[in-house]
Design a protein that fits this description.
mainly alpha; 150 residues; 79% helix; 0% strand; single chain; globular
């Protein structure tokens, strides 16, 4: 896989996870996250950070009311019952630290598992993205922003 194909693949996995969380589809979340290795997880998490930053800017630009406490509650609601209890707890705990800028504490709470970051960033992007765009417009907008075909 060429570098551009590799990057496209990681963006696609990230978008698929955002979509799975936006749909609250437990089976889809499991399928999309299955097989994500430590190396792949880091790359997918990197793409999810880009989507999260894009959506955070859009929230500010559109004036949708969104506070840090909203993101903590939204991530907890988004992952509820979609992950195994241990992963759900790790994601919520890591996000509580990450959302207030305590990135090292978030890593400690994730126990070095990149999949925790993948889930928390995908859940955040789904939550904030649906607040701005709604579920139907979220993925087409992110695909356009990522320069990926529909």
């Amino acid at each position: 896989m060429a570098a551009t194909d590799d990057a496209r693949h990681h963006k696609t996995v990230a978008l698929d996870l955002i979509d799975a969380y936006a749909r609250a589809d437990r089976r889809m979340v499991g399928e999309r996250s299955a097989g994500i290795s430590a190396e792949t997880g880091e790359r997918v998490a990197s793409e999810l950070k880009v989507f999260g930053a894009f959506l955070s800017r859009r929230v500010r630009e559109t004036g949708v009311p969104w506070r840090p406490a909203d993101s903590r509650e939204a991530v907890a609601r988004t992952v509820a019952d979609l992950l195994e209890p241990e992963m759900e707890f790790a994601v919520v705990s890591a996000w509580e630290a990450y959302s207030v800028g305590e990135h090292e504490a978030a890593r400690a709470r994730a126990h070095g598992d990149p999949l925790v970051f993948v889930h928390m960033l995908a859940a955040f992007s789904a939550a904030i993205g649906t607040a701005v765009y709604g579920r139907e417009e979220l993925l087409p907008t992110l695909r356009l922003a990522a320069e990926l075909p529909d």
